């Protein structure tokens, strides 16, 4: 029977009931995902999921790994991990293993996002030199080495058309640098919201001078606040919005950098920080240039909220450069090379998405957005409590679901509006059936989720808005080894579906694997579903084998 079942629903346009649509329902087929796997692989997967159900074990896993390292038993941990969690959630350690995984996925209609699963956080280096110059030099050598690994990732991804790589900015500079350069943004944003008493999103010079400017570390160095306001108020109307401030008072603007350089302490940056920032952007620009030549797209991953302002800044800077509209090409048909990631479990997530969309419109570049719920919820809440600031995470899971679906709807409506604009232009010159009418690529939405309801929502809203299943502007994705039944069903039915394909040395991807175990442990019902799917597949194989054996034993008539 078909695994995507129709459901009849009424279409409402501007409050008026119009006609009837047949909307697809997502009914994942586990057999599609499991049929090509060996019985040994299925048994390994079942073991991994059963271990994920043991929440006490998942909680103490980081401590056990640290203990093993202290006892010099990391080799044993790595050996066990390689045959269990690594085999389930990672593509391999060598290029042949990784490319083989990509091609297996492609054979089932699934694209790949290669992910060098090496993560960094504050205090991650246990051997910190006392000499600051030596520390900087070592951190930059490490960042250059990872940039080379990302270049290799791009080369591997280019072996399959329309592939992505995932990129973590924290690996390309020291986490402490990214943290320091991110610090001023939260007080600046809070000051803006506090000054906007009438909630119209606009500040005049007096409000800017009184509230926003003093929130910056180097405010005491400003001799002419009106000159700073003039730098922000580019249209000279006496009013600025948050986007004006964010675009003008950024660290990429050398004239604004003194505002980031306060006295030692909270939010203060130094000349050395800006030198390392330039090195970071140099690495990112070189990778984007290489990706452009190999036709590989880059997804900039979201990370911890205390790193995110600088990560967003870096991603938007790349997008403004590499997604820029070319005069020789209609803007609707220009595909983004760089995608930024938006965490919808963050209270400010939807506002950020809409602001960045508006920025792309003002600056003239193609907008590519990946929507995620978020992967650092426990850490974020724990840190907020410890540091004494409000948690950035939504109060309830329902708030996150609502915000996630609102983000999907927002971008789908933008895509549909662009499609209508494109159809009117292309139809007038080439006819409505022209293939050009199906090549809309700006904006582009990537729905990264394991929540089947959100994927079904994306499919149904796309149908209602007239966006084709094979649209090059709407994609979905899941992590390798998780919710494969959804991925393989979408691949079979012609949707643009991708898998995050992590790889790397086992010892270096352990933080990633721990997060996968934690994520699975937090949704016990989903784990049991995966186990039940594996049991059903094993039973199918046993009974099919027995049936074939019985048929073979029957005497010939």
Automatic annotation (TrEMBL):
It comes from the Eukaryota. This is Proline dehydrogenase.
């Amino acid at each position: 029977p078909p695994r995507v079942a129709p459901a009849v629903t009424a279409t409402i346009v501007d409050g008026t009931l119009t006609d009837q649509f047949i909307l697809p329902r997502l009914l994942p087929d586990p057999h599609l995902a499991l049929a090509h796997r060996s019985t040994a692989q299925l048994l390994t997967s079942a073991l991994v999921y059963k271990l994920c159900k043991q929440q006490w074990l998942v909680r103490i896993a980081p401590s056990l790994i640290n203990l093993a390292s202290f006892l010099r038993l990391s080799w044993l941990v790595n050996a066990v991990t390689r045959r269990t969690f690594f085999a389930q959630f990672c593509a391999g350690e060598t290029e042949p293993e990784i490319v083989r995984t990509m091609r297996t996925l492609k054979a089932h209609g699934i694209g790949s996002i290669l992910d060098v699963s090496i993560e960094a956080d504050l205090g991650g280096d246990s051997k910190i030199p006392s000499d600051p110059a030596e520390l900087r030099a070592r951190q930059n050598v490490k960042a250059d080495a990872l940039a080379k690994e990302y270049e290799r990732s791009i080369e591997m991804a280019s072996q399959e058309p329309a592939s992505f790589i995932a990129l973590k900015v924290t690996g390309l500079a020291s986490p402490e640098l990214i943290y320091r350069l991110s610090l001023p943004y939260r007080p600046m944003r809070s000051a803006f919201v506090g000054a906007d008493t009438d909630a119209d999103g606009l500040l005049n010079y007096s409000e800017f001078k009184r509230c926003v400017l003093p929130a910056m570390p180097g405010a005491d160095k400003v001799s002419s606040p009106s000159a700073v306001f003039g730098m922000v108020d580019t249209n000279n109307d006496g009013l600025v919005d948050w986007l004006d401030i964010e675009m003008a008072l950024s660290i990429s603007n050398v004239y604004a950098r003194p505002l980031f350089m306060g006295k030692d302490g909270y939010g203060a940056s130094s000349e050395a920080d800006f030198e390392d920032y330039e090195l970071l952007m140099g690495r990112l620009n070189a990778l984007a240039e290489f990706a452009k030549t190999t036709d590989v797209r880059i997804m900039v991953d979201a990370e911890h909220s205390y790193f995110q302002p600088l990560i967003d800044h870096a991603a938007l800077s790349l997008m403004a450069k590499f997604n820029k509209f070319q005069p020789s090409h209609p803007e609707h048909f220009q595909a983004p090379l760089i995608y930024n990631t938006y965490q919808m479990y963050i209270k400010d997530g939807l506002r950020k998405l809409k602001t960045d969309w508006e920025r792309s419109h003002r600056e003239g570049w193609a907008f590519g957005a990946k929507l995620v719920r978020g992967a650092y919820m426990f850490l974020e809440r724990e840190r907020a409590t410890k540091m004494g600031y409000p948690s950035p995470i939504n109060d309830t899971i329902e708030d996150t679901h609502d915000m996630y679906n609102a983000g999907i709807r927002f971008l789908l409506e933008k895509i549909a509006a662009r499609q209508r604009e494109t159809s009117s232009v292309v139809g007038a010159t080439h006819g409505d059936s022209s293939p050009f009418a199906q090549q809309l690529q700006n904006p582009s939405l990537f729905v990264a989720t394991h929540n089947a309801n959100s994927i079904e929502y994306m499919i149904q809203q796309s149908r209602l808005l007239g966006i084709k299943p094979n649209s090059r502007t709407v994609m979905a994705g899941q992590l390798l080894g998780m919710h494969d039944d959804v991925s393989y069903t979408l691949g079979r039915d012609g949707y643009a579906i991708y898998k995050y394909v992590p790889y790397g040395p086992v010892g270096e991807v352990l933080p990633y694997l721990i997060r996968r175990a934690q994520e699975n442990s937090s949704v016990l019902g989903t784990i049991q579903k995966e186990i039940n799917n594996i049991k059903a597949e094993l039973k199918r194989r046993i009974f099919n084998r027995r049936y074939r054996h019985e048929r073979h034993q029957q005497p010939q008539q």
